[in-house]
Amino acid sequence: MTSVVADRIASSGWSSQLSGTGLAIRRILRADRWFWVTWVLILWSFIPATASAYRSTISDDAAGREVAAALAANPTMRAMLGPPFDLLTVGGFTMFRVGGFTAMMAAIMGVLGVIRATRAEEEFGRTELLRAGSIGRHAMLAGALAVAGSASLLLGILVAISMVVVGTPVGGALVMGGGLALTPIAFAGVGACAAQVTASARTAREIGLAVVGAAYLLRALADAASADSPVRTLRWLSPLEWAPLARPYAGNRWWVLPLLVALAAALVGGAFAMEARRDYGAGMRAARPGPAHAPAGLSSAGGLARRLARGSVWAWTAGLAVFALAMGSMSGVFDAIADEPSLVERFRRMGAGAQDLTDAFYVAMLGILAGVIAIFALQLAERLRREEAAHRDEVMLATATSRIRYAAGHLALALIMPTLLLALVGALLALPAALRDGDWGVLTRTIGAALVLSPAVWLGVGIFAAAFGWVPKLHLLPWLVVGWTLIVSWIGAVLGFPQRILDATPLAVLPQVPAESMSWPPVLIEGALALVLVVAGLAGYARRDIG
Questions:
Q1: In the chain, where the domains are located
Q2: How far apart are the first and last CA of the chain?
Q3: Tens of pLDDT along 55-77?
């Protein structure tokens, strides 16, 4: 494919196609600088924080070696965190604990950043203004990839420097930094291709995030398999696994890193080839014409919101259902670690102190899934802001539809669908144990435990509604709250964060059933707070200027 692209570039005048790339880079940096700065600094912060906590987890004695061996042998930990290679060194431990997680989040950064600067700008019509000047066809795509690549390299450099500063070998630090820099560069190529396939930025994001999710799920299943299982070999098919498989501090396999370079080159070449063929404003996949007459379900603002979100709902439901079922199948492995007090204590800490390790597992996984589902809820609510930015809301509001009815249709969907999804993942998480042990009561208990976490998801929607209704410039605030909640849920207890930090999330104030007994006041108070914020947001939206 790259040779075809090269021939086409040579015949069409590559320099003219890229003219104005510098202008595009400046435009992207001006618009998205805080997006990149926030992502890079947060992802980098995981690395030195984990390295500094090494001795608090793995002591320099026989007990520490036993804990390291138990962590490496536990399939649930491998599925969540990645492959362990040498947990008796600071570098190897850090790569195991947060390397895979950082690679996954950096991949999301690469996908979203490129789509944000290409397809979203084209969809909103801002690219057309730039193209009215002397700017080449591929300038915006090249600029977006240049910015994404620079941010990714900065992340890798910061990681490498911080690991050298904490005293790890330079070679391992460079391999670790290189892997964590090249992973988002490769997935920036995924975002670039997704931006060419469809005319919708929303659909492009769904495609890109689906690729990241599939790569993560494949990695988790392969890492959880036993060493002699043929499933283990599938991890080479997941680009998210290549940075850990470079084995920083455990052999430093430099030859793995060029795989990420080759993948990035192929994807970027494919993206440029598709952009050269498609029409401006369109995607490679042609949009299908709609029916001549709208169905009855589209006669209301709520019906329109449901129709617009249909693809997202199905994609998120399928992805989270598979993930919950796969993780639930690992709930029967805890008898093997019952004789490791340090590891048992860490699992109980992850599970809000539950004495039964299986219950602790359910509590921990439900916390992670609730954080992910909160992102889904915000994505549904965010359509209000995107519709306003694209001025499509004016079409609806020019009819008899009031502002409150229009906004309430989207917000109601953002509250109801994630709640149903929480119940579904709770059931699927417990289903393998129910089938294995014949205890079907575990299904109802886990569904109830999942639904108890609903107010935390609603609170994210409430914060969005209040910001959207009164101060639209604060649209990043709910994302910061949800992102922080997800980070603490995913790695906070594993890394031994102080309890005051673990308690500083909307999830922490809710009862962690079944580790804790049910308590209705926190659930009702947080739910009521979310409702008040939604109502306040609707009131503000009804009063403020639009656009």
A1: 18-42+101-285, 297-547
A2: 43
A3: 667 777 777 787 777 778 778 77
